[in-house]
Amino acid sequence: MPDSRTADFALDANLTTGYRWVVDGIESGDAELRLVEGFPTYEPHGRGLGAGGVQRFRFQVLAPEAARVQATVRFRSEHVTGRAPDDPIRTLTVSLEPVQR
Q1: C-alpha separations of 4 from 20, 61, 68, 70, 71 in Å
Q2: Helix, strand or coil for residue 3?
């Protein structure tokens, strides 16, 4: 029976100047990761134009309750005008322990 654990990722972004992160790939073995509805979200650091902020991604992790899950999500930086060749790629890994009931 699958459970619905979640994995959260937060990355510095600056949507006021057009820079954001997009999911570039997911490696999760036998588990499935789905972006939760309503994500990604953006929280600015302040009210000033160009202040930057945090872009948050939340994934629902579908896997058997007894399974240990290790998932790697690749994010790439993107500008609203398109991806520049030198835009960084950020790879983040999360490990989830089996659900204890």
Answers
A1: 27, 6, 13, 15, 14
A2: strand
CB 77 within 8 A of CB 18: no
Residue 90: C-alpha distances to residues 1, 15, 29, 57, 70 (Å): 32, 17, 19, 13, 17
What is the maximal distance between C-alpha atoms in the chain?
Answer: 48
Q: What is the pTM of this model?
A: 0.77
pLDDT in tens, 7-35: 888 988 888 777 888 888 888 888 888 89
pLDDT in tens, 82-101: 665 556 677 888 887 765 55
DSSP 19-45: EEEEEEEEE-TT-EEEEPTT-SEEEES
